[in-house]
Specification:
The structure holds two protein chains of two kinds. Chain A is mainly alpha-helical. Chain A has helices at about 40-65, 70-75, 80-90, 95-100, 100-105, 110-120, 125-130, and strands at about 20-25, 30-35. In chain A, strands 1-2 form a two-stranded antiparallel sheet. In chain A, helix 1 packs antiparallel against helix 2 (about 70-75). In chain B, strands 3-8-4-5-6-7 form a six-stranded antiparallel β-sheet, with helices on both faces. In chain B, strands 1-2 form a two-stranded antiparallel ribbon. Classes of the chains: A mainly alpha, B alpha+beta. Chains A and B meet through strand 1, strand 2, helix 1 and helix 3 of A and helix 8, helix 9 and helix 10 of B. Chain B: This is BtrH N-terminal domain-containing protein.
């Protein structure tokens, strides 16, 4: 890539910091140039997030329908699968599967809820009520 | 307390941290491309069995920790590299190093990395940064991706050092064990060693999923994605490929450019071997990775999406495989 072709499409990262790119100058020598972002990358990220947002919305609906406990919502919200949540909380995957049932979740001790709350970086109260308090 | 450390922004985290720490320790000639090349950083692997964010895992560079380890080893620099079971021990070790004015490299997960914008935070555990000081409850951070130094609270740093999941950092910390100066002869030897290792990783690695063969295999698979996965999921997979390729800092295309930059610098140390000419082939490969990304974007944005469009995408990868194979074979022919 030539230095002058380094894309400068402002991304949300670009607002914070520009990225270093290696590119060639007019004599073919490698040098570095700062980039504010690239549309192709921005679109790839948007595509990933619109899929995630859909999964979060589906999970929220399932919780509201009492088909799943709020854990499902927070797993999608924090992009965690069973294996990852298990390693963050120390629970076995089969335990988490049980806790995903609303009736089991409602009976969980505060100590267990604390573990989930810490893994999701929320308060226990928010965990129970499926609320998120962050920008 | 604060160690003397000059923040350098770089294109890729681990080669940047490696070059930053080595320069700080006295090996001032080790630029980012030299660290990347000597550490044999260029790689490709397609691992459909490991799912990341519901898509296949694709790596464009080698495993975390290896660039630092290999570069130091090739330059004959002793290293200290440690992982921890206990968070407390990990922090004590860090504090002790900082008290001795030693800046250290840390492997971290990006999901809870508070200074990154939220949309860039995934459970990706192969990020690297330098911790160079402590002020109150804050650690001073030199993240090579950022233009300026930043900071994390002790809780935030602990959280990212002990991120969980694939390639969990386990508090990994690393730095050169002592002040060293390297001479040009050592660098020449290290360059040759790094190139040979990279030839092995790209041409001779067994299995269909890694190296040049892995690129070819991915290319062939992409032809079938539209029929096998449906247009929407195929689009998500392609977006995943591009994100792995071009995400924060440098990406797959960028790694090819960095390798090109490495060969140009290597040519100054080892003139007459044709390294500068071969460098052009990596530039060509990098350009084609970017062309492929543009094609993929057309598909995941929904502008195009016929089987013919997937065939074009597939052919880009097959062509890249040919270029990279040719380039590494040319490197392999060099009589050192």
């Amino acid at each position: 890539m030539k230095k002058e072709d380094v894309p400068q499409d402002l991304s949300s990262l670009g607002k914070l910091t520009r990225e270093v790119c290696y590119a060639t100058d007019s004599e073919g020598k490698y040098t570095t140039e700062l980039s504010r972002g690239w549309d192709v990358k921005i679109d790839a990220l948007d595509t990933a997030w619109s899929d995630i947002d859909k999964r979060i919305a589906d999970a929220r609906q399932k919780v509201l329908n009492k088909e799943a406990s709020p854990l499902l919502f927070f797993m999608e919200y924090r992009l965690m699968d069973l294996a990852l949540l298990a390693s963050y909380t120390g629970f076995w995957q089969w335990q988490i599967k049980r806790h995903l049932k609303p009736e089991v979740f409602d009976e969980l001790s505060n100590k267990k809820l604390e573990k989930y709350a810490e893994a999701f970086n929320v308060k226990v109260q928010d965990l129970k009520q499926m609320t998120v308090n962050e920008s | 307390m604060k160690a003397d450390f000059v923040h350098h922004q770089s294109a890729h985290c681990e080669s940047g941290v490696t070059s930053g720490l080595l320069q700080n320790a006295g090996a001032t000639q080790i630029t980012e491309p030299l660290a990347f090349g000597i550490g044999a950083g260029l790689f490709y692997a397609y691992i459909p069995l490991i799912k990341i964010n519901n898509g296949p895992a694709i790596a464009f560079r080698t495993f975390p920790g290896l660039i630092f380890k290999r570069t130091c080893k090739a330059l004959g620099i002793p290293v200290i590299q440690k992982k921890f079971r206990s968070k407390e021990q990990a922090e004590n070790f860090l504090k002790e190093a900082l008290q001795n004015k030693q800046p250290v490299g840390c492997q971290v997960g990006v999901y809870y990395l508070s200074y990154f914008p939220k949309e860039y935070r995934f459970h990706f555990n192969a990020h690297n940064l330098v911790v160079f000081g402590q002020e109150g409850d804050n650690y001073l951070i030199s993240d090579p991706i950022m233009e300026t130094p930043t900071s994390l609270t002790s809780y935030e740093l602990e959280r990212v050092r002990f991120a969980k999941g694939a390639l969990a950092p386990k508090g990994q910390i690393y730095y050169p064990a002592k002040h060293v100066e390297v001479n040009d002869d050592t660098i020449r030897r290290a360059i040759k060693h790094g190139i040979k290792q990279n030839i092995n990783n790209m041409l001779r690695i067994p299995g269909w999923f890694a190296g040049v063969e892995g690129i070819r295999y991915t290319g062939k698979r992409i032809k079938k994605w539209r029929d096998n996965l449906g247009l929407q999921k195929a689009g998500l997979y392609l977006a995943q490929l591009v994100r792995m390729q071009e995400e924060i800092g440098t990406g797959g295309g960028g790694f090819r450019y960095m390798y090109g930059a490495f060969l140009q610098e290597a040519d100054n140390f080892l003139p007459g071997k044709g390294l500068s000419d071969i460098s052009k082939q990596f530039t060509e490969a990098g350009d084609l990775w970017r062309t492929a990304a543009v094609q993929a974007a057309g598909i995941y944005k929904g502008r195009i999406g016929s089987q013919k469009d997937f065939d074009v995408m597939s052919n880009h990868l097959l062509q890249i495989a040919d270029i990279e194979e040719k380039a590494f074979k040319a490197l392999n022919k060099i009589k050192w």
